[in-house]
Amino acid sequence: MANKTTLKRLEDELGGFKRIQQGTRNFSRNLLGVAAGLNLQQHENGVEVNPHQQQHTTRFINLPSNLITTVMVFSIMMILVSFFEVKLKTIIYGLTTLWIIIIIWLIFTSYLKKIELK
């Protein structure tokens, strides 16, 4: 009897993990699509789009290109995680480290911009 309940619990956990994995794949595909779309809006065939359009898209989205690159890296990492089934603890540590690095980078770049303006 104990073996049946253990087996049932393992099947439930595996099913939950597969749902999380599928959700992660969908989430990362969406992120890649958003990041690629933003990148295409900012640079059309390597040439800057007209300034009015660029200003409008930047104002609408309000994301620096560093952040767009970071989103792409983040989504690629999530795809790798979902395909290679890394443990959840490792994912959480990696994401926490990534976001700490992003925050430090954004603070640093905004500080450099303030120095540049003076």
Instruction: Count every helix, treating DSSP H or I runs of 4 or more residues as helices.
Output: 4
Helix share, percent: over 70%
Radius of gyration, in angstroms, nearest whole number: 20 Å
Query: Class by helix and strand content?
Result: mainly alpha
Taken from the alpha-carbon principal axes, the silhouette is elongated
Number of domains: 1
Mean pLDDT: 66
Order of helices and strands: HEEHHH
Sheet with the most strands: spatial strand order: 1-2
Beta-strand residue fraction = under 5%
What is the rounded distance between the termini?
A: 74 Å
Oligomer: single chain
Low-pLDDT sequence parts: 54-60
- Most strands sheet: 2 strands, antiparallel
Keywords: Membrane, Transmembrane, Transmembrane helix
Summarize the structure in words:
The protein has 118 residues and is mainly alpha-helical. It has one domain. It has helices spanning 2-42, 51-61, 65-84, 88-117; strands at residues 43-44, 47-48. The termini are far apart. Residues 54-60 have low confidence and may be disordered. The chain crosses the membrane at residues 63-84, 90-112.
